[in-house]
């Protein structure tokens, strides 16, 4: 009985000290993680808006060039009169997809797209982060909507989908069309 009591006390003390250490570590790292996420967002917005920056001056360049505007509960990132960027996020085939899309000031064409987060199959759907795929969006019209096609894109609103990743391509197509139309409708009001 005495031996079992010692084991129980030992386990409780070990659990309490481990929990305390984890709470302290979480409290220490949470602000650092939040700051890194903020820097990642700001650098992605700068890239989407085609603004050059040095990695050590992300915040300064962002603050000097990008105006953050909230309209109807949506957040927009405006770069002078050249382009407007906003976040998109939603379900991919296997997990969430999150990114930044920028459009020109005429509200007709995509300027750039950056993927911040995705959980698609590496080598297939995960290719949505590759520059060769994302470069297709530059200058593409999103009116009436983006269309992902199999094979070379022939029209102004077509994107060559990823072979073998039909589900991811369809999910990204739906996500972009929905988000862009929602944000552009607010901008046109």
From TrEMBL:
<feature type="signal peptide">
    <location>
        <begin position="1"/>
        <end position="23"/>
    </location>
</feature>
<protein>
    <recommendedName>
        <fullName>FMN-binding domain-containing protein</fullName>
    </recommendedName>
</protein>
<keyword id="KW-0249">Electron transport</keyword>
<keyword id="KW-0288">FMN</keyword>
<feature type="domain" description="FMN-binding">
    <location>
        <begin position="92"/>
        <end position="183"/>
    </location>
</feature>
<keyword id="KW-0285">Flavoprotein</keyword>
<dbReference type="GO" id="GO:0009055">
    <property type="term" value="F:electron transfer activity"/>
</dbReference>
<keyword id="KW-0732">Signal</keyword>
<keyword id="KW-0813">Transport</keyword>
<keyword id="KW-0597">Phosphoprotein</keyword>
<dbReference type="GO" id="GO:0005886">
    <property type="term" value="C:plasma membrane"/>
</dbReference>
<dbReference type="GO" id="GO:0010181">
    <property type="term" value="F:FMN binding"/>
</dbReference>
<dbReference type="InterPro" id="IPR010209">
    <property type="entry name" value="Ion_transpt_RnfG/RsxG"/>
</dbReference>
<dbReference type="GO" id="GO:0022900">
    <property type="term" value="P:electron transport chain"/>
</dbReference>
<dbReference type="InterPro" id="IPR007329">
    <property type="entry name" value="FMN-bd"/>
</dbReference>
<dbReference type="Pfam" id="PF04205">
    <property type="entry name" value="FMN_bind"/>
</dbReference>
């Amino acid at each position: 009985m005495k031996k079992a009591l010692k084991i129980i006390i030992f386990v409780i003390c070990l659990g309490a000290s481990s929990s305390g250490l984890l709470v302290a570590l979480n409290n220490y790292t949470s602000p650092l993680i939040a700051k890194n996420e903020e820097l990642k967002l700001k650098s992605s917005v700068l890239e989407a808006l085609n603004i050059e920056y040095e990695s050590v001056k992300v915040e300064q360049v962002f603050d000097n060039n990008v105006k953050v505007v909230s309209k109807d509960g949506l957040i927009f990132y405006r770069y002078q009169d050249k382009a407007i960027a906003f976040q998109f996020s939603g379900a991919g085939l296997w997990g969430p997809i999150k990114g930044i899309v920028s459009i020109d000031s005429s509200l007709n064409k995509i300027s750039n797209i950056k993927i911040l987060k995705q959980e698609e199959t590496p080598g297939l759907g995960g290719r949505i982060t590759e520059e060769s795929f994302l470069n297709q969006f530059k200058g593409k019209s999103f009116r009436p909507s983006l269309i992902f096609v199999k094979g070379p894109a022939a029209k102004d609103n077509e994107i060559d989908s990823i072979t073998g990743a039909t589900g991811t391509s369809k999910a990204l197509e739906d996500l972009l069309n929905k988000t862009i139309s929602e944000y552009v409708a607010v901008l046109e009001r």
